[in-house]
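#lab-general

N.A. 3:47 PM
ok so I finally got the sequence cleaned up, no stray characters, all 376 residues accounted for. can someone with queue access submit it? mine expired

B.Y. 3:52 PM
send it over

N.A. 3:53 PM
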Amino acid sequence: MPAAPTSSTPTETPATSATSTDRPARPVRWTPRTVLVTASAAAEPHGQRVLQRLERAGVQDVRFLSGDRLPNLRDASYGDAKRTLALVTSAASTRKPVPIPPSADWSFPIAQGCPGHCQYCYLAGSLSGPPITRVYADLPRVLAGLDDVVGAGSVTTGTAARGHEGTTFEASCYTDPLALEHVTGSLSATISHFGTHEWAGPVQLRFTTKYDDVEDLLALPHGGRTRVRASVGVRDVERFEGGTARVPARLAALGRLARAGYPVGLTIAPIMPVDDWRAEYGALLAAAAAELDGVSGLDLTVECITHRFTPKSKDVQLDWYPRTKLDLDESARSRKHGKFGAVKYVYDAATTRELRGWFEDALARELPAARVLYWT
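B.Y. 4:20 PM
back already:
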């Protein structure tokens, strides 16, 4: 069985030295240093296409396993794990669509794990083990299972506010699919499937991203059935987002997608009451409006998500980023319980009301054509 990866220089470009006004000369791309391939994944046609992409990307450390169990990587460092991609097949339980309110009716996996280094990552407490990225080689099998839930769901299907979106499917619940696209092709395959497949009813694919490498998506047969959302924030939030594209580049990419006929959106997250936050977020909304100005038939949504954390995600974040300046002071937050008793820490009611009231007014002023889907 292959040994755990050893340390090396990261292949991704850290974002800590960039400023919000920087525009990269080329899109931000992540390339893994080590790839682990299970036997079943290597036999899948989509898995073989992923391997070809990895070869073209110059990845040399590709380790083919004799079976379908990954080696024990629990002793791998955070940096090594973040530079490791595992090409695997999905378990039946993993393929099953899962409700994902308030975003969409259902989520489904095309990958799990993200190469970004976002110090506030809320999902850090949801994924077990070291933060390697798993890519599913049996993507056609994953997509085939979505037909069974078309016409079902409680977030958009049959609702007055969002029923026109059809049955909605979130593809970025546990990953940033655009971050992986140049070495997987999974996102393009998924967009093309949604755009050309004969569905039993109206559907919409949704994903959100902090990356800007959209060139290969522009000419896909998306059929207007994929909504791409740029995850954006202000400078004092963006500084926690290592290894990602800068916010101006994300907005520029969103404008290109909108002009290619995609429905688009802004995921403003995580919202934080940083110094001079009204001016900072006002400038962000104005920049988004400028990038989308003149788009014919613009279909724009906005989702607003305030910063929150759980005891488990806090522990993981502090383990990964022990010198973080992220505010994780539980005593300054309100304690909330989820439907299954899970604890999370959110801003107090007064702060939340102030933030929400300002955003409602500012969005109506700066982006009057946008539909605000939810605030959380």
